[in-house]
């Protein structure tokens, strides 16, 4: 590489960008429409949005962490207390959905274990199989044979009949 550079070939770039010469005294219509749009449309929308965000920041509501208080069971409701009946029914439906999700989670864990272990699934996934058997038996004991239109009252009656049968079986054994 030569020591003496030809400065005319490799000129340094200009230090400042030259200002373009205006050829007319009229304002640019694009800048005019941008300014009008900013003041008429953008500024009010931005103001309203920021105001709403400030209001929402004051009182945060986490809907996905909603916790319901436990209500009395249907057996604890006084006769004719329809509000208590309604709350007990809603509580029963929430409990049923939670129990369904528990069964589904245990079933997914068993499926993942079977997939992971392959041919050794019967030996290595015995704990998960036992847990699934316990969970499904508990779910079946409580909600089985109720059908789609099952409610808290029919579930309570089913549990009552099961308890009566267990007492009869105990009485027959002791005799």
Summary of the model, kept short:
Keywords: Electron transport, Membrane, Mitochondrion, Mitochondrion inner membrane, Respiratory chain, Transport. This protein is an all-alpha fold and 175 residues long.
What report would you give on this structure?
The protein has 175 residues and is mainly alpha-helical. The protein folds into two domains: 27-63; 82-174, no CATH class. It has helices at residues 29-58, 82-117, 121-124, 126-143, 152-174. Helix 2 (82-117) runs antiparallel to helix 4. The radius of gyration is 37 Å and the shape is elongated. The mean pLDDT is 87. InterPro entries: NADH_UbQ_OxRdtase_su10 (IPR019377), NDUFB10 (IPR039993). It is found in: Mitochondrion inner membrane. It holds the Pfam family NDUFB10. It comes from Chauna torquata (Southern screamer).
Itemize the secondary structure elements and their pairings.
Elements: H1 29-58, H2 82-117, H3 121-124, H4 126-143, H5 152-174
Helix pairs in contact: 2-4
Family: Belongs to the complex I NDUFB10 subunit family.
Subcellular location: Mitochondrion inner membrane
Membrane topology: Peripheral membrane protein
- Globally, the shape reads elongated
Cα distance, first to last residue? 114 Å
- Given as residue ranges, the uncertain stretches (5+ residues, pLDDT < 50) are none
Order of helices and strands: HHHHH
Give the domain tally.
2
State which percent range the strand residues make up.
under 5%
Q: What is the gyration radius calculated from CA atoms? A: 37 Å
What average pLDDT do the residues reach?
87
Quickly count the helices. Answer: 5
- Describe the biggest sheet? none
The assigned structural class equals mainly alpha
Task: Give the fraction of residues assigned to helices.
Answer: 55-70%
The overall strand count is 0
């Amino acid at each position: 590489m030569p020591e003496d550079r030809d400065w005319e070939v490799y000129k340094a770039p200009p230090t400042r960008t030259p200002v373009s010469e205006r050829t007319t005294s009229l304002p640019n219509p694009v800048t005019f429409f941008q300014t009008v749009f900013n003041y008429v449309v953008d500024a009010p929308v931005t103001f309203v949005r920021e105001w709403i965000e400030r209001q929402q920041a004051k009182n945060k509501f986490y809907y996905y962490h909603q916790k319901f208080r436990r209500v009395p069971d249907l057996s604890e409701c006084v006769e004719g207390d329809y509000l208590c009946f309604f709350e007990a029914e809603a509580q029963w439906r929430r409990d049923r959905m939670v129990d369904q999700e528990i069964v589904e989670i245990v079933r997914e864990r068993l499926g993942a274990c079977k997939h992971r272990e392959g041919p050794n699934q019967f030996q290595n996934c015995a704990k998960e199989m036992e847990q699934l058997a316990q969970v499904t038996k508990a779910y079946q004991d409580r909600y089985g044979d109720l059908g789609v239109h099952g409610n808290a009252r029919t579930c309570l009656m089913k549990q009552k009949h099961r308890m009566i049968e267990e007492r009869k079986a105990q009485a027959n054994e002791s005799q």
